[in-house]
Amino acid sequence: MTTRIDTRFEKLKAEGRPALVTYFMGGDPDYDTSLKIMQALPGAGSDVIELGMPFSDPMADGPAIQMAGQRALKAGQSLKKTLSLAADFRKGDNETPIVLMGYYNPIYIYGVERFLADAIEAGIDGLIVVDLPPEMDEELCLPALKAGVNFIRLATPTTDDKRLPLVLSNTSGFVYYVSMTGITGSAIADTSKVNQAVDRIKSHTDLPVCVGFGVKTAEQARAIGQSADGVVVGTAIVNQIANTLDAKGAATSDTVESVATMVRGLATGVRAARLAPTQ
Amino acid sequence: MNQTTNPNSFRTGPDEQGMFGIFGGRFVAETLMPLILELEEEWTRAKADPAFRAELDHLNAHYTGRPSPMYFAERLTEHLGGAKIYFKRDELNHTGSHKINNCVGQILLAKRMGKTRIIAETGAGQHGVASATVAARFGYPCEVYMGATDVQRQAPNVFRMKLLGAKVHPVTSGHGTLKDAMNEALRDWVTNVDDTYYLIGTAAGPHPYPEMVRTFQSVIGQEAREQMIAMEGRVPDMLIAAVGGGSNAIGLFHPFLDDKDVQIVGVEAGGKGLDGEEHCASLTAGSPGVLHGNRTYLLQDGDGQIKEGHSISAGLDYPGIGPEHSWLKESNRVEYVPIMDTEALEAFQLLTRLEGIIPALEPSHALAEVIKRAPKMGKDQIIVMNLCGRGDKDIFTVGKILGVEL
């Protein structure tokens, strides 16, 4: 089954450039602002949208995304509303892939079958669920693949060659390479190391490989885009949102536009990268 | 496949995937998965290694002070006028609680694995103190994550940890309690994967922690069994223990799970009552969900967001529970009941006056259940309660509630 994700990466491959994948937290700082941010992303140069599902205990995230989740939950965000956000976005954009990213418990409580049905209905293309390693594939990964939703796995610096085939099995859409051992928003040590890791993963799979965790600037995006098929920016965008909020944590007239401006800058960096010649 | 009723034995879990029925598992980020597999491999080797067993036994005997006494509480028994009450006195262990049993075991594993840095989470600070203690004993740097709220209400334990050379990180993210401390410890571990050993304090978290912690704590139940047979010529009629994460309880219960005639009761923190939000009774009032690496009963809302718990006892103040307890609940082998703050506080004072033992607020919950049950039982019947911690750490909390300035 071909998803919007597959179609998008094929198109970008033809253009000879990597994807800019942008993450933001659904419902941060409130539903309506969040929808406007999402609607502004494709025009600003985002090729794939990662839509964060807030969770009370985000154990793989740094302070920026933790706070974004808390803001969203405080504003009344729920998994159901995050799915509505995607559905509302789809009314005006039927091409940009949407990947939901978050933790398993809200999905488990929603009910896996019902969640997959509603996610497809809302126009979701893929899932990244941080706390579901391949050992737990029966929980959500296999049902998602059966339902035609991509299950995007995280590969990390601790995923060695012995384990990589297991991680890649049942992965679809793309592979998300976590640039370092750490939480979201930490600093990338060395982009050349990241590029070596991307090459290693590519020797095991034909899937596109996107790199995230710690990419903050257009220059980093360009450097990583030389080997990766996509560059994920999350914390920097979430911080940008946070910086425009008023003292009470509410959106201001700058919020949406400042995110769009940042994404345009990142898109310039990504578009300046050249894909490494494919074999 | 997920049979939860009438298994041949209640003592064979978890399975190879780390599951107790539908509970347990390994719900962790990929970065941690190789570390957890490495830990499982080393744990499997250690279990089969007589030298590991010998070193553990030696430390238990000469460092911790095991076996802990089995004490017949004569005056309490008389006072209640029913079943004979025995205390398994793990509060007499080095560091003042059962937590040391697990820490001694895990530090030996950390040493075998060549790790050079220890991290731990703590609520009341008992596990933090026990971790800092074994880290000092074996010469490791130790960093303890503790909710900022708990740092304030458990100041003596914070100072103890610092004296022992540990670094205490107050955790302000989330609501600054034990669950946030555990999140922060996991964030540290995911960042420092090469050198760090995460010393989890309760029988929860991703496989193999629940099984491993249970095994180290089962020394409580094994001793209790031998002591009962020596003292009374038989196993007791009832076991009672407090459950927060559930490590002292599973340690007492596990060796008796297949003794069909032994009734087993776990006591949760009912806080200010189950009809409100201020309690920690995840088994009685929660529902199954996934947090901190395992599926288990949790306090959560309809969207799967985890709620904050409340208990007078910081050690029971965790919105989850070890997965094996969830399974034992669903298979009806163990009965779980709540005890309110006020009941625990009364039990605390009663024991202090009647037996000259100041219990921690955690086992005071178990004691309150003993007080309810013993009078209804025959004088020839026997209850064993796990007196898993001493109350020195709680005198400030109790003083404040009783209106005494210390």
From TrEMBL, chain A:
Mention one GO molecular function.
Answer: tryptophan synthase activity
What is its biological role? The alpha subunit is responsible for the aldol cleavage of indoleglycerol phosphate to indole and glyceraldehyde 3-phosphate.
Its recorded name reads: Tryptophan synthase alpha chain
**Metabolic or biological pathway:** Amino-acid biosynthesis; L-tryptophan biosynthesis; L-tryptophan from chorismate: step 5/5
Q: Does the keyword Lyase apply?
A: yes
Which UniProt keyword terms apply here? Amino-acid biosynthesis, Aromatic amino acid biosynthesis, Lyase, Tryptophan biosynthesis
**Pfam families per the UniProt record, alphabetical:** Trp_syntA (PF00290)
Identify the HAMAP family for this entry: Trp_synth_alpha
Q: Which CDD domains match?
A: Tryptophan_synthase_alpha
Q: Which reaction does it catalyse?
A: (1S,2R)-1-C-(indol-3-yl)glycerol 3-phosphate + L-serine = D-glyceraldehyde 3-phosphate + L-tryptophan + H2O
InterPro entries given in the database record: Aldolase_TIM (IPR013785), RibuloseP-bd_barrel (IPR011060), Trp_synthase_alpha_AS (IPR018204), Trp_synthase_suA (IPR002028)
Automatic annotation (TrEMBL), chain B:
Function in brief: The beta subunit is responsible for the synthesis of L-tryptophan from indole and L-serine.
Q: Which InterPro entries match?
A: Trp_synth_b_CS, Trp_synth_beta, Trp_synth_beta/beta-like, TrpB-like_PALP, TrpB-like_PALP_sf
Q: In what pathway does it function?
A: Amino-acid biosynthesis; L-tryptophan biosynthesis; L-tryptophan from chorismate: step 5/5
| Pfam family, any one | PALP
Instruction: Recite the UniProt keywords alphabetically.
Output: Amino-acid biosynthesis, Aromatic amino acid biosynthesis, Lyase, Pyridoxal phosphate, Tryptophan biosynthesis
**Residues that bear N6-(pyridoxal phosphate)lysine:** K99
Q: Which reaction does it catalyse?
A: (1S,2R)-1-C-(indol-3-yl)glycerol 3-phosphate + L-serine = D-glyceraldehyde 3-phosphate + L-tryptophan + H2O
CDD domains per the UniProt record, alphabetical: Trp-synth_B
In Gene Ontology terms, what is one molecular function of this protein? tryptophan synthase activity
Q: What class of enzyme is it?
A: lyase
Q: Does the keyword Nucleotidyltransferase apply?
A: no
Cofactors, names only: pyridoxal 5'-phosphate
Q: Where is the Tryptophan synthase beta chain-like PALP domain?
A: 65-389
Q: How does it assemble?
A: Tetramer of two alpha and two beta chains.
Under which EC number(s) is this enzyme classified?
A: 4.2.1.20
Q: Which SUPFAM superfamilies match?
A: Tryptophan synthase beta subunit-like PLP-dependent enzymes
Would you tell me the protein name for this molecule? Tryptophan synthase beta chain
